[in-house]
């Protein structure tokens, strides 16, 4: 299928699909004229990518996590040791950002009395 059809099936923009390919998350074959050709599996891959992005993971992290992910609608994750380390690191970083935001919020609220 061409990029427009994949975009229509997944709800992802063509620009996003090109970006996923640039980031090494999505593969496409090229026709002689340079058009991208995607397989039906690409629909599931895009669903996985979008779900992982919605969970707050960066494309760098998704690149390492994607081989451990199965399913499309409800993600099934194979918790291989590398993935566990990656997800724990991401959670720790997220917790640190939440703590910093709580401190900032407290300071702003204090200014308001």
Automatic annotation (TrEMBL):
Stretches that traverse the bilayer: none
UniProt xrefs under InterPro entries: DNA-bd_dom_put_sf, MerR-type_HTH_dom, MerR_fam
Alphabetically ordered keywords of this record:
DNA-binding
| Keyword flag DNA-binding | yes
Q: Is the keyword DNA-binding assigned to this protein?
A: yes
Q: Which CDD domains match?
A: HTH_MerR-like_sg3
The name this protein goes by in its record: DNA-binding transcriptional MerR regulator
């Amino acid at each position: 299928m061409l990029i427009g059809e994949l975009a229509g099936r997944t709800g992802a923009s063509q620009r996003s699909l090109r970006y996923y390919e640039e980031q090494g998350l999505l593969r496409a074959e090229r026709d002689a004229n340079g058009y991208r050709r995607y397989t039906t599996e690409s629909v599931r891959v895009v669903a996985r990518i979008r779900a992982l992005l919605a969970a707050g993971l960066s494309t760098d992290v998704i690149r390492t996590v994607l081989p451990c992910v199965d399913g499309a609608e409800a993600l099934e994750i194979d918790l291989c040791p590398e993935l566990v380390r990656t997800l724990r690191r991401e959670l720790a970083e997220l917790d640190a950002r939440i703590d910093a935001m709580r401190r900032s919020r407290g300071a702003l609220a204090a200014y308001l009395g």
